[in-house]
Specification:
- The structure is a single chain.
- With about 240 residues, the protein is an alpha/beta fold.
- The protein folds into 2 domains: about 130 residues, NAD(P)-binding Rossmann-like Domain (Rossmann fold, 3-Layer(aba) Sandwich), CATH 3.40.50; about 100 residues, N-(1-d-carboxylethyl)-l-norvaline Dehydrogenase, domain 2 (Orthogonal Bundle), CATH 1.10.1040.
- Helix content is about 50%, strand content about 15%.
- It contains 10 helices and 7 strands.
- It has a 7-stranded mixed sheet with strand order 2-1-3-4-5-6-7, with helices on both faces.
- α2 links the parallel β3 and β4.
- The longest helix has 27 residues.
- About 25% of the residues are buried.
Length: about 240
């Protein structure tokens, strides 16, 4: 399949490498290079807010399939093109090398033209579909699972540094917690003062940490207390 990818960031370059390795004829362009695009499929890997503008600027043959890779956007952003689709990989793409490797065998949220399913199959992936009104919530869950977990570990790093330790010393603890969630689910994996209802310990933590880190801790402790309450209510 002849594919032109618009957008040479981490997503675009990851797809470029993965699709080329899968045997497709792939061209990679920057988002401002939209002249004389000729392909079976044009894949837009540009920022979500730029999708509609870039799509409307493309002058393509009527049978060209235009695809975006945004998890939260529906197909209406690709107007006025007749053949449209989307595929959003449920993996993090931190750099082209790792991203290309993760795209093979990944899970994809897809919509639109059946050829999108062929692209996923060429990457040995698994596809699922959602209603349009579900996509924003789906993408929110994906962002929490990846982006917010990374942000949380940045919080851990800053707290650790205040006592002369590094993030690396806490990563085994974080990994064991993820393993417990995978095996037992979040409610049963929860440990610590929120799980026990030990509010005095939480207050001591807030006294000990820097003021600019307290809001993050309070938000997470509140969520942990709510998770513990749901678990306890379910066991009554």
């Amino acid at each position: 399949m002849q594919i032109t990818i618009i957008g040479a960031g981490r997503a675009g370059t990851s797809f470029f490498r993965a699709l080329r390795a899968a045997g497709h004829e792939v061209e990679l362009r920057h988002h401002d290079d939209l002249v004389a695009v000729t392909a079976d499929v044009v894949m837009l890997c540009v920022p979500d807010d730029a999708l509609a503008e870039v799509a409307s600027a493309l002058e393509l043959a009527p049978n060209t399939l235009v695809v975006h890779c945004a998890g939260s956007r529906n197909l209406d952003v690709l107007a006025p093109h007749a053949r449209v689709g989307s595929l959003h990989p449920l993996v993090a793409l931190p750099n082209p090398e790792t991203g290309a490797r993760r795209l093979v065998g990944a899970t994809y949220c897809v919509a639109g033209d059946d050829v999108v399913g062929d692209l996923v199959a060429s990457l040995s992936g698994r596809a699922f579909t959602l209603r349009d009104d579900q996509r924003a919530a789906y993408h929110a869950a994906a962002c929490v699972a990846a982006n917010h977990v990374v942000t949380l570990l940045g919080h851990v790093e800053r707290l650790a540094e205040t006592v002369g330790l590094s993030l690396a010393e806490f990563l085994p603890l974080a990994q064991s917690a993820l393993d417990d969630v995978a095996f037992n689910g979040p409610a049963m994996a929860l440990t610590g003062p929120a799980s026990r209802g030990d509010l005095a310990t939480i207050d001591a933590h807030l006294e000990a940490i820097a003021e600019d880190e307290r809001a993050t801790y309070v938000a997470l402790a509140g969520a942990a207390l709510a998770l513990a309450e749901r678990r306890n209510a379910a066991s009554r």
